Amino acid sequence: MREETKVVIRRVGFLVVALGITLAFMFPLVWVVLASLKTRLEIFVLPPKWVFLPTLQNYRDILHSDFMYQLKNSLLVAAISTGVSLVFGSLTAYGFSRYPIRGSDNVLFWILSLRMLPPIAVVIPFYLLFRSLGLLDTTLALVLVYCIFNISFSIWVLKGFFDEIPIELEEAAKLDGYSPAQVFFRVSLPLVRPGLATTAIFCLIQSLNEFLVALTLTTRKAVTAPVGLAKLQTFLGTDWGRISAAAVIFMIPVVVFTVFVRNELIRGMSFGRMR
Amino acid sequence: MSEIRLENVRVRYGKNVVLNDVSFTVPEGSLCVITGPSGCGKTTVLRVIAGLTKPERGMVYLGGKPALHILPGERDVAMCFQTFALYPHMTVRENWMFPLYAEKLSPQEMARRIEEVTRLLHMEFLLDRYPGQLSGGQQQRVALGRALVRRPRIYLLDEPLGNLDAKLRVEMRAEIRKIQETLGITTVYVTHDQTEAQAVADIMVVMDFGEVKQVGTPEEVYERPENLFVAGFIGTPRMNFFSLEVQENGGRVFLVSRAFSLPLDAHQGALLRRQGIPEVILGVRPENVLCTLQPGSGSFPAVLEVVEPQSNEYILTLRREDVTFKARLRRDTLGFTPEVGQKVWVCFEENFWHLFDPRTERRLEGRG
């Protein structure tokens, strides 16, 4: 066999395997999308129908339900907590990375331990706390709780990125006459953009997906999408078509954001070199 | 445009003493080259002058005023880092503009400076590239450019030409010298390349293990090395050293080894006798080793071991008993074609002997 043919075969084989793995992971997603376009009867047909006349009825129902309001809540909470986490996370991480702080290892571990906290252990105290503060069923309560988890996460991830920046870059900027704040905003921060993107995605997903705390701290006004989704399963039965449609809508923001920052994300995941 | 003075500067990183008692002065408007083997503290000296490293002890004066409390950004110092330290998220042009923005120059002046540096460093077609898209030599030129666009009081250049090819290096060092002289900006220039050091320096500072070994003009450092280290470090091929015993014979002083015995003149003989030194180290530069086919006064026989032809000279490795040493001779005045295994007569040019005390490793005063 000729050498080139071998190469081609190897390439094709690799692609087939990769495609197979991707399909396996994509399958639930495909299933949800298909289910959202089926009628109630078609969903339960065995063997499953792959070709059918799609209907948008499920989406119509969802768009006119409480779910859209809950989705708005979710997005709001996620966006604010992510934003706040990035601001505080980057500033704190930079401080730990660049300035000698006595006992910084211990403080960092303490910060990380907040992240290790199992939510189930703190959800009751949180409930009592927010009840006495009169913050039950408010977006603010959720933002605050999510910030606890997200800030500690941001600090750890971003510190790694700041550590990667050669100190000479900042020294050069200092010698060029820039103040510490200017050095941070004009040199260091732009260089950790991949880190910011990675952190943002993870914070966003974490906040959007969070279920337990949201379920406990909200009743009506501040209910978020995951809680709302679960509530579509009622005692009177489960409308899988509508749940699927809601799930698809719920996925859209994360997908859009991920596509938006995908270049930074890939660099961030592979912990980009700086020079 | 200001004098730099370091007084007894000592820097420690943890337990490592990186600079020990470093003192020297760079007069206003002159170019000082710091040279020495790697790890000797050259870069740390620059960092101390820039204010990036705080000395544990000692003083730094810039323009005659104590400067230790002045922040790096307020010292009006431009530095070219050995590691380049280019901003990876900015193009070449933006890298150069960055310090100019801080100075709040007018757009016309900025454009003029950028254009000047571009021409100087041959970067015409690369202005809109990012550092990651440039070769090592090009990155180095960007780093140098970022210092040269400024008109500070002091330039600190840390191996600014180390990654360039030979031709560009020679061209650039002349350009740096020209700019520096025209603008009269006090400059400290770190290099381990001696030719470069000799070519640009007003003053040379030779360092080893965090200590200043000698400060002087390039000529002084070359012609009158103060100690064994400087003698061995400056000059290629390096100086030949011979351990010799001091002996008196019939009123004259001789330097004696198993291989040869050299008579000293009365003046130096008296000096050694007065100081009562039993042994000396004699240093002779390869270009001061003369070879002939006929014996002459003060010459001794040796065997040619290696012959390395250079552009217009030979580097010869010679052996006498268990002592080997090198000679550097011009081809046109040699008078014969050297061959390996050949026996020649060698003498060391008078007036170019460097005598050192083996105990202190310092130069013994006298002739030379």
Automatic annotation (TrEMBL), chain A:
It is found in: Cell membrane. It is a multi-pass membrane protein. It holds the Pfam family BPD_transp_1. InterPro entries: BP-dep_ABC_trans_perm, MetI-like, MetI-like_sf. Residues 71-261 form the ABC transmembrane type-1 domain. The keyword Nucleotide-binding does not apply. Keywords: Cell membrane, Membrane, Sugar transport, Transmembrane, Transmembrane helix, Transport. Belongs to the binding-protein-dependent transport system permease family. MalFG subfamily. This is Maltose/maltodextrin transport system permease protein MalG.
